[in-house]
Amino acid sequence: RRTADNGGIERAREVLADVFGYRDFRSHQADIIATVIAGDDALALMPTGGGKSLCYQIPSLVRPGLGVVVSPLIALMQDQVEALTQAGVKAAFLNSTLDYREMVALEARIGQGDLDILYVSPERLLQDRTLALLARIDLALFAIDEAHCVSQWGHDFRPEYRQLKVLAERFPSVPRIALTATADERTREEIVAELRLGEARRFIASFDRPNIRYTISDAGSMGARERLWRFIETEHAEDAGIVYCLSRKSVEETAAWLSDKGRTALAYHAGLETRVRSKVLDRFRQESGVIVVATIAFGMGIDKPDVRFVAHLNLPKSIEAYYQETGRAGRDGLAANAWLAYGLQDLIQLRQWIAQSEGSEAYKQVQRQKLAALIGLCELPSCRRQSLLAYFGERRAEPCGNCDNCLNPPQTTDGTVLAQKALSAVYRTGQRFGATYLIDVLLGRANERVARSGHDKLPVFGIGKDTDEATWKGVFRQLTAAGQLTGDDDGYGMLLLTDAARPILRGEEKFLVRIAPKETKTKAKRASK
Ligand code: ADP
Ligand code: ZN
């Protein structure tokens, strides 16, 4: 491997100032950049807005040769190339939007070495024609952006990403850097394995967004929309924000409803013409106090720093999605709100979507687990931030003081004994079963499966008889949300103990169970007629 001289990081600082106009590197940027400049592989986990782009842009400029950036998002590629070109960097993108003539011209430029940074879609990169072209020229690095797309467990699986392992085989001397904003432990391991990054140095920035206040509530009898209005009226009377809805129809209705209340509220979804959508984007950026009501199609690549709130009128699909979407609030570091209200109907809807989706059974199982983890977070009686960060593999010792549960602790009951029973059932049955089975064991149901495994002979068999099934479900969800239990890697729905389970089993730590408010249940029945 080509190693840069010690001046590498000095050069990087000059480029930071001269090309990008910034004085200092942020948290891990300098180390990541130094690693790649030195010719080593890197895995960078940084939250959205953390400054991942510079981690490959600067080494591309400092190292000799072309920096190749794999990105799954065409719109993002175009934005980045535009910004780089304005900064005087020779950048271009290669994807399906180019016509044949443009492509040939670009290839000629690449062949002549007249380019610093090339953004390319994975499909295009993997074509023989492209790989052969790259084999003929000097390469500074490969950057694999949105690396979680390689993971089936990740929320954005792209099969082409799995083939990127050929880069390690065909270009062994070119350093590779994989970047992502969403990677829990298992996604991280999948990235490393699938992309052959076993030797890569890992950089993990904190995912904490301390200025974002998390609030999650049941839509309850008031309904999510009415609750939303109360929230906006009292806390964000003049602020810009984003409201996420599940369907286009509810986007349209909610935008109209907020407009009636006197706010500038614009609908945004994939069904609108491109022209209309870019108009919405422009107004959101330029005018103050605009609320965009959107499906999740809105957000990728949005870089408006002063979004003061992100509200969800429905459950997002997963904790990753929730984190990603709420992460668009408060990028300027000032106080911002992440607000979510959900109803039982959302749950039913999301479960139906999973059941009816095209994916394999294993895929569906993963989606179900993710949804369960999200519900766990919603039902959690303790600090939301601790649980959110635990999901991303980050331990935080103290409650945050800046989430709804920290500020207004919900009604809870000491569930330590329940938790111990549940965790023991997981342990005694060999960490090979899902919640449904474990609940059968706890309730002492000697059905065929239980009997076949001989689990009706275990000391835990029937120890949970005095508690109802719904409570047990809640206990398992909450233990999963709090990180004492985790799903298995293969998506079979098995629950496994984590290190965090030990203090509870030993009685060194208490476990609080949230008492669900009664009101929601009656309302949900009426709503789902
Ligand atoms: P990510 O890709 O991690 O979401 P970006 O690379 O888009 O984040 O960076 C987010 C914002 O932070 C951009 O506006 C970028 O210009 C800015 N930024 C990145 N690094 C620095 C830095 N060292 N100093 C100041 N601003 C930075
Ligand atoms: Zn908290």
UniProtKB/TrEMBL annotation:
Cofactor(s) required for function per UniProt: Zn(2+); Mg(2+)
Transmembrane helix in keyword set: no
Catalytic activity: Couples ATP hydrolysis with the unwinding of duplex DNA by translocating in the 3'-5' direction
Keywords attached to this entry: ATP-binding, DNA damage, DNA recombination, DNA repair, DNA-binding, Helicase, Hydrolase, Isomerase, Metal-binding, Nucleotide-binding, Zinc
Gene Ontology molecular function: 3'-5' DNA helicase activity; ATP binding; DNA binding; four-way junction helicase activity; hydrolase activity; metal ion binding
Gene Ontology cellular-component annotations: bacterial nucleoid; cytoplasm; replisome
Positions of the Helicase ATP-binding domain: 33-201
EC number: 5.6.2.4
Enzyme class at the top of the EC tree: isomerase
Record SUPFAM superfamilies: HRDC-like, P-loop containing nucleoside triphosphate hydrolases
Ranges where the Helicase C-terminal domain occurs: 224-375
GO biological process: DNA recombination; DNA repair; DNA replication; SOS response
SMART domains in alphabetical order: DEXDc, HELICc, HRDC, RQC
Record keyword Zinc present: yes
Pfam families to which the protein is assigned, alphabetical: DEAD, Helicase_C, HRDC, RecQ_Zn_bind, RQC
Family recorded in the similarity comment: Belongs to the helicase family. RecQ subfamily.
Listed name of the protein: DNA helicase RecQ
Native species: Hyphomicrobium album
Record gene name: recQ
